[in-house]
C-alpha cells in the first residue's frame, strides 16, 4: 500500500484472503442456485436425477470450501500443509481473475488487491521450504531502480555500477556479493522474460510495481517467484527505490547455504 510520500508499507494478505472467502461463498451460493432452480425440471427426466446432481454440487462445494480453508491455513502457519504447489496454481490461474472481478464490483482498489495477492503468493512459495543453490536464483530488477540521469547504465551488468551510493544499485551489488546470486536489470516485461529463458533459474526474486509483479508471477508459473514491491517517491517508473532488507530477508529464507569444505589433515 502506497502512502502520500510514495513509500510502500508491507502488503497484507488479509484482503486477498477475505476476498477469497467471499468469492468462495459466492461461487457455492451460485452453484446451489444453479442446482436448485432447475431441480423440478430434472425430476421430470428421472426421479433420482436431482439427488445425483445435488451430490455432485455438494462435493464441488465441499472441495471449494476445503481448498479455501487449506489456503488460509497454509498462509497463516507458513507451512506446506497439502498440495501447496497445486493451490498456488489455483490461486494464480483461477482465483485471482475472479477475485479481481469481485473486488472491482465492491469498488476496491486494484493495486491493493494485487499487493495482497503478491503477499499471499510469497507465503505460498516460502511455505514450501524450498532451498535453492545461489547459482540457480535470479534477482530481477526494473531499470527505474537506477537514477534516471546516471551516465553509467547497468542494464545487463549490474557490476558496472561505480558504487556512488546515490541509488539502491550499490546495496543490491552488495546483496549479490553476499549471496553469490545473479542480478539482472530489465527494461521491460519482454526483456525480463528473455533473461529468465536464457538463465533458466529455479527461483526468481523480482522487484517491481504491483502490475508488473502480478503479471510476472502469472506468466512465470510454475516457476516460483517472490515479489518485492518497489517504492515510488517520485511517481511510477522514475528513480524508484527498494528496501534492501526485504531482499536480504527473502533470500535468506530460500537460499541453500553450502557447507564450507572441510580441511584435509
Automatic annotation (TrEMBL):
InterPro entries, per the entry: DUF116
Residue intervals passing through the bilayer: 15-37, 49-74, 86-106
Keyword NAD: no
Record's keyword annotation contains Nucleus: no
Highest taxon in the source lineage: Bacteria
Pfam families reported in the protein's UniProt record: DUF116
Alphabetic keyword roster: Membrane, Transmembrane, Transmembrane helix
PANTHER family according to UniProt: NUCLEOTIDE-BINDING PROTEIN-RELATED, POLYPRENYL SYNTHETASE
Entry protein name: DUF116 domain-containing protein
Organism listed in the record: Oryzomonas sagensis
Organism lineage: Bacteria, Pseudomonadati, Thermodesulfobacteriota, Desulfuromonadia, Geobacterales
